[in-house]
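hey so i finaly got around to running the thing on dTDP-glucose 4,6-dehydratase from Bifidobacterium pullorum subsp. gallinarum. pasting the sequence first so u can double check i didnt mess up the copy paste, my clipboard has been acting weird all day
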Amino acid sequence: MVESFSPKNIIVTGGCGFIGSNFVHYVVNNHPETHVTVLDKLTYAGNPENIAGLPSDRVELVVGDICDAGLLDRIVPGHDAIVHYAAESHNDNSIADPEPFLKTNVEGTYRLLEACRKYDVRYHHISTDEVYGDLALDDPARFTESTPYHPSSPYSSTKAASDLLVRAWTRTYGLRTTISNCSNNYGPFQHVEKFIPRQITNILTGVRPKLYGEGLNVRDWIHTEDHSSAVWTILTRGRIGETYLIGADGERNNITVLRMILEMMGKDSDDFDHVRDRPGHDRRYAIDATKLRTELGWTPAHTDFADGLKATIDWYAEHRQWWEKTKERTEARYKAQGQ
Ligand code: NAD
Ligand code: TDX
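ok and heres what it spat out for the 3d tokens, dont ask me to read them lol
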């Protein structure tokens, strides 16, 4: 039987980042009975503007590090659940400097699990399809909950390590946990280091988009609002101890997505540069979300990728002040890496 859980006070770690802040908006808009404490360190990827304007009686921001056990002792008691989004999240950064990934993704998860154990708090772990490694381009298979772990990058290996900690704490200490592994998100508030916002903001600043290698790598795109509704579904109705894969049947290769962006923005579809490929670049991710759909009845609302992409382009065009400063720093770093 499916459990039912109605959290009144939740902590959302990483709630000033891309997906975490979209989840905070989702909770505020759809679940008026739930108060959110955002715990965020405000790294280069965290921006308090992402949650600015939300009612102060619904959302509180605590600026701090998930690795800080003393801080967790002060804020975790009194909460019913932690939804853990905070992470170092960018593969290219993990290749340039893996250390912060070990610290935040592995030690940070450990600290949160220990706090949940100490204060008997329900825990939902946000993970990624990248823990499964990649699929060959001509392989018809998709990832399922029973696919063996086979991560490729420093980023995905630290996410895999954090998933395994969650499983161990569940079995050994009886912690009330669930894990979700989602595919590539797109939508508003995504950092300009990531593929889709990087290309949109390149075009908006008169720079040619940059495609790694031949661009044949496939990603399985999901709108971040659909990720939010799936996480809420799993948090409130998921079976304790279970893993659910989240995806919306959005497989496309990078060159196709890039050409869609160029055409939607009135450019020639060949108006981009091929740049140095990412070392160890995963070829294809693909999610089979049958378990989430059939067991918990979840369905995505954003089923037209072209519509979602157009709305995302419009959002970046209308929010230049949100990304302009970060853009310069990000492109300087990419330039130094030959990308
Ligand atoms: P992001 O980089 O945009 O945001 C990460 C947030 O975590 C930032 O606000 C940052 O300040 C915060 N943070 C980092 N280190 C912290 C620390 N030590 N203590 C407290 N806060 C800290 O990331 P995102 O793309 O929104 O990803 C969020 C989560 O979703 C991650 O766990 C990621 O692995 C997972 N995920 C991402 C995708 C995707 O497509 N982006 C897909 C599947 C899963
Ligand atoms: O400029 C670029 N050109 C390019 O061709 C960038 C930044 C990326 N790419 C390619 C690499 C990937 O094949 O585009 C694809 C998507 O790249 P990213 O946006 O960096 O995402 P990815 O590496 O697939 O990982 C994302 O999805 C899974 C998130 O960043 C992870 O946090 C999540 O776990």
